[in-house]
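Summary for the steering committee. The consortium agreed at its last meeting that each partner would contribute one worked example illustrating the joint modelling workflow. Our contribution is presented below. We chose a case with several input lines so that the handling of multiple components could be demonstrated. No manual editing was applied between input and output; the record is shown as generated.
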Amino acid sequence: MKKLMLGNEAVARGFLEAGCQVVSSYPGTPSTEITEYAAKYDEIYCEWAPNEKVACEVAFGASLGGARAACCMKHVGLNVAADPLFTMSYTGVNGGLVVVVADDPGMHSSQNEQDSRHYARAAKLPMLEPSDSAEAKEFARLAFSLSEEYDTPVLLRMCTRIAHSQCAVEECEAREQVTREYVKNPQKYIMAPANAIRRHPVVEERCEKLTELAETAAFNKVELAEGAELGIITSGTSYQYVKEVFGDSVSVLKLGLVNPLPKKLIESFAEKVKRLVVVEELDPIIENHCKALGITVEGKSLLPILGEYSQSLIAKAFGMPERASIASPDSIPVRPPVMCAGCPHRGLFYVLQKKKYTVLGDIGCYTLGSAAPLNAIDSVLCMGASVSGLHGFNKARGADAEKKTVAVIGDSTFMHSGMTGLANIAYNGTNSTVIIVDNSITGMTGHQHNPTTGYNIKGNPAGKIDLEALCHALGFKRVRVVDPYDLKATEAAIVEETAIEEPSVIISRRPCALLKTVKAKPQLMVDTEKCRSCKACMKIGCPAISMKEGKAHIDATLCVGCDVCKQLCAFDAIGGEK
Amino acid sequence: METKNIMIVGVGGQGSLLASKLLGKLLTDEGLDVKVSEVHGMSQRGGSVVTYVRYGEKVYSPIIDKGEADFIVSFELLEAARYAHFLKKGGKIIVNTQKIDPMPVITGKEAYPDAAIENLAALGVSVDCEDALTAALEAGSAKAVNIVLMGKLSKYLDIPTEKWISAIRESVKERFIDLNVRAFLIGRGEA
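What follows is the complete predicted structure of the assembly.
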C-alpha cells in the first residue's frame, strides 16, 4: 500500500522493514521525527539519549551486541558524535549500524550550514543520500545490509527538504529481527594502538571495495538523454530541482552513494557529454572529486555555495528567463519567531536586560531572548557553550565581570553538554553564575522528554534526574530555584548570586506554557481608563500585547495569564476580567 | 496534466500542517503524484510559515518558487502580501482577513499594511477574501480556520464534496470530525 510520508517517517519505516531493534537519538531539527516515528513501532526499542555522542555509542553497543541499530541527529549533532564515529569506522560492526545525519542548507533552524559529507570522507565511511521519501525508506534498508556486508557503520544523509517533504511510499513487509551471536574479539573491538594499527588497512581496503561497488550499483544511476550535450552530476534534493528544470532533456548521473564516489562511472559519463556540470548544495565535494580525476567540470562557478537551491535558482544559473511575478507594493514587516505568550523565559530575560547583564546564551527556545525588544543575549555558539564560555569570559575579565555576567542554558541542553562546563567552573574556580532555565521539556524541537522530565520517549514514567542534587554533586554549594513569573524574586536571586564571591546556579523553573499539562490562568485585560500609554508592558515582547487606539491591549486568544506584564504596570491598569 | 501548485502560508500555530495533510491525502486518493513540503522547528514559534503542495502526473521538486503558485491560501492578511510574488500569472489568492500583528508592529517599529489586499487587487491579482475566524467560530472553534479555508479553496478544484469530507474524516481525530466537516461546508458555501 502506498502512503504519503515525510522523509523522516520513511526513514523510520525503513528501520522497521530492515529489522532494526534499537534506536537512540537526540532531537534536532530537521531529524527529530525519525525517532518519534520509530518510537510508534512497538517492535523497535527507541530512546532519547542526553546527547548525540551517547546516542551514537548506545547504537554502537547495540550493534556490538548483535542487533541492527541506528542513531539520528542533526548536522551539528554529528560534531558531538564525531568521536565514536571515527573509531567505529575502525571497529566495524556486528549487527548493522546506521547513523542518520540531517543537514540544514538555508539554516531554517540551525546555527551553521556545515556539509556533513565531509564527515563521511574524513571518517572513511559510506554515505547514502536519498532524494525523496520513497528513496529515504529504500536507502535506510539498504544502509543496514551494506553495513553488515562491508562491516562498517553507514551514514544516511538527509536534508531539510527531504526530511520535511512528503511523497508516496510503498510499505513493505518487515524483515525478521535477528540478533547476531556476540563473540569476543579484542583485535576488532579494542581500539588500543596495537589493534587499531591493524584495523586502519582494513578501513582502506573497505573504501576500495565500496568504490568498486559505487561503479556499478543501482543506487548510482545514469539517465542518458539522446543527443543531449549537457550532462549533470547531482544527488539528493538537487536531483529533483534538476529534473524539474530539465525533465528528460539532459543526461543526468544521480549519485545515491555520496561517499566513496565512483571514478570510472564519472569518467565514462563525462565522455558521453559535451558540457559537464555538478549541481550540489553547499560544498563542492563531487565537483572537487571530478577535478581531482582531471575532468573538466563546472559547479560552484555557476551555482552558490550558500543556502538552499530551487528550480528557479538552477534555471537562472543555466541562463533561462525568470518567471514573471507580481510583488506587493507594500512594505511588509518581517514576522520572526517569538517567545510564546506566557513563555517562562520572558520574565528572566526581562530582568537580565533591565539590569544590563552580559549573557552567554545557548541553543533552544530561549535563544529567542536575543530578539527585540529584549535583546538580552550576547553570544550563542553551540550546545553547552554558555556554561564553559562564561568561565573563560570571567577568567579574561576578572572579578567585576563575574558580577555582571551570567550563562543561560535550558534543562535539556544542560543535560546534553552543560554538566561538564559546570564541573569545570567548580574545579578551576570562577565565581560564575549559571542560570538553568528549566521548562521541564525540550521545547524548540517540539516537546521531547529528557533525563530531567521523568518520562521516556513513549511518555511512560522513567528515571528522573534531580537538577539541584546534580549541581550540588558537581561542586556547587549555592543552588537556588526561582519562578521566572515572579519578577521581583527573579531579580533578587540574580543580584544576590552574582554579587556573592562563590560559584552559583540559579534554576529558573516553570514548565513550558504550551505543555498540555499546564493549565492557563484567566486572561488579563487592560483597564483603558487607568492605562497611561507608558508602554512599560510592551518591553517584554509578548505577542499578546499591542497598542490599540493609543492604549495597551491584550489579545484574549493568546494570553495565558502569566501576570508578568501586570507586574510592570505602575498604574494598576492590568488585571482580571472586570 | 501539468503540475499544479498550492501554497499555504500563515503564522506558526495556525494549523497549516493539518491543511496540507488533508490536501495531500485528498490528492493522493485522486491517484495523483503529490509532494508536500513543510518547515518545522524555529518557524513554529509564531513566525511566518509556508507549506507547499504540488500535484500532477509526476512531481519532482518539493518546493514552489516565485511566479509558480496556482493558488495561495493565506491564513493571515499580511502573509498574503508577503508571499504574493509566488503567484503565477492568472493565479488566485484566498485570504483570511484575520490580522495577527508581527513583533515589529507590536513594538511600534513598523506599521501593519492594512490596505495590502486592496493594493494587490489593484495590480490585477485575483483575491478571494473570507473572515475565516468568524466562520470557524460559527462552526464551533477558532482552531477550524484552516479547514474553513480549505472549504474556500475546494470551490476552485474539481473534486466533489464527498471526497473532501472523506479525506477530512481520515485526517482529524474522531471527536473533531463533525466540527471540521461543518467548518469545511461553511467555507465551501454549502452549509
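The domain at 345-509 of chain A is CATH 3.40.50.970 (Rossmann fold). Chain A has four domains: 2-216, 220-317, 345-509, 525-575.
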